């Protein structure tokens, strides 16, 4: 579209340039000498060729020949062809114009080819940057995985080593040896849980989180989640249609519910209320978990899905988990094509909204 406008504009440039030269001669009553006239008339031809290409340039050449040769203007403004020299001058003018048009056309094509080459180079550069960005991101994720594993495995490894050293270095009674073995087994279980969580997050980072989707009753998943936590010390209310189903990985979504309900229990005083409400829309399931707990301050809320982030830094794995729970929740929800949002007020409670496609 832009090239079409430029070409039309160049036609007008050629016509107007030639007419302006002729009118200027007539206005000042100082006709250009015959020999220099064609030099002046090279200007509109060259201008049209540079702006619009071959077509506008040839039009300017024809108009220039009319002005410079034929009797379309008063005789004193035209070159009267009376001799072989005059004809040679006209021929030479046309040849010069054609050569000039060819040179300019080659320059235009070279400029266009250069612009296209620059565009291709920019595209290749963009692709290269994108590829390097993906590699850098993969390297960052690998480093993050290593740092996360080192960070979270350090404590159980230390406990395991300490217990095994004690058990091996000094004679112990059977009861003491059993205690050491139980402690080592507990540390090993913690390590296994951390490794499994990190592998799940690593698979999520690569977009390869394994899901086995099947039609599942939402009420059954909520009941399974409540059975997995200590729900006896709080007032739980559940509002969900018994027949409501969703296409999902039931074990993964149940894990989401367990993590969210466990967080609600940990942050809510006994006898306070925790509610689970499930609503249906034509294409989604909306699950809301609301508690009357201590709430989360705004500076912590912004990092709530970060790995190993704990709003209460004094809590460890035994009292508050590894800090991977909400990161895993978000990974599972994202893998299902859903969204999760958390709003909270300090000393008022927290509301978690999970939206999953049906």
Name the CATH homologous superfamily of the largest domain: Histidine kinase-like ATPase, C-terminal domain
Report the CATH architecture of the largest domain.
Answer: 2-Layer Sandwich
Described by strand count, sense and barrel closure, the largest sheet is:
5 strands, mixed
Number of domains: 3
Class from helix and strand fractions:
alpha+beta
Helix content: 55-70%
Report how far the terminal alpha carbons are from each other: 46 Å
Low-confidence runs of at least 5 consecutive residues: 29-33, 71-79, 313-320
Overall CATH class of the largest domain: Alpha Beta
CATH level-3 fold name of the largest domain: Heat Shock Protein 90
The total count of strands amounts to 7
| Proportion of strand residues | 5-15%
Strand order of the largest sheet: 2-4-5-7-6
Number of helices: 11
Order of helices and strands: HHHHHHEHEEHEEHHHEE
Radius of gyration over C-alpha positions, nearest whole angstrom: 41 Å
Shape: elongated
Question: Could you report the average pLDDT, rounded to the nearest whole number?
Answer: 79
């Amino acid at each position: 579209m832009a090239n079409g406008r430029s070409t039309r504009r160049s036609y007008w440039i050629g016509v107007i340039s030639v007419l302006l030269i002729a009118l200027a001669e007539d206005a000042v009553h100082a006709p250009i000498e015959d020999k220099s006239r064609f030099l002046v008339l090279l200007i509109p031809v060259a201008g049209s060729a540079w702006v619009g290409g071959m077509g506008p340039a040839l039009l300017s050449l024809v108009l220039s020949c009319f002005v410079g040769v034929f009797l379309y203007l008063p005789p004193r403004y035209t070159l009267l062809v009376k001799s072989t020299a005059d004809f040679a001058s006209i021929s030479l003018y046309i040849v010069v114009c054609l050569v000039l048009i060819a040179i300019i056309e080659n320059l235009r094509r070279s400029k266009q080819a250069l612009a296209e080459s620059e565009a291709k180079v920019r595209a290749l550069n963009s692709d290269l940057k994108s590829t390097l960005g993906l590699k850098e991101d993969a390297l960052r994720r690998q480093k993050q995985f290593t740092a996360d594993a080192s960070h979270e495995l350090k404590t159980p490894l230390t406990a395991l080593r300490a217990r095994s050293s004690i058990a091996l270095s000094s004679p112990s009674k059977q009861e003491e040896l059993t205690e050491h073995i139980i402690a080592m087994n507990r540390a090993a279980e913690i390590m296994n849980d951390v490794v499994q969580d990190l592998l799940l997050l690593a698979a999520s980072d690569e977009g390869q989180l394994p899901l086995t989707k099947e039609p599942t009753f939402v009420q059954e998943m909520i009941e399974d989640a409540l059975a997995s936590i200590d729900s006896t010390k709080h007032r739980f209310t559940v509002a969900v249609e018994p027949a409501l189903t969703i296409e999902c990985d039931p074990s993964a979504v149940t894990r989401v519910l367990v993590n969210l309900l466990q967080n609600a229990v940990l942050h809510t005083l006994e006898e306070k209320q925790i509610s689970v409400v499930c609503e249906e829309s034509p294409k989604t399931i909306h699950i809301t978990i609301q508690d009357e707990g201590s709430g989360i301050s705004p500076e912590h809320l912004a990092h709530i899905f970060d790995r190993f982030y704990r709003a209460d830094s004094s809590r460890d794995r035994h009292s508050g988990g590894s800090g991977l729970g909400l990161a895993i929740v978000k990974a599972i929800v994202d893998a299902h094509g859903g969204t999760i949002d958390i709003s909270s007020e300090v000393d008022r409670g927290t509301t978690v909204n999970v939206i999953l496609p049906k």
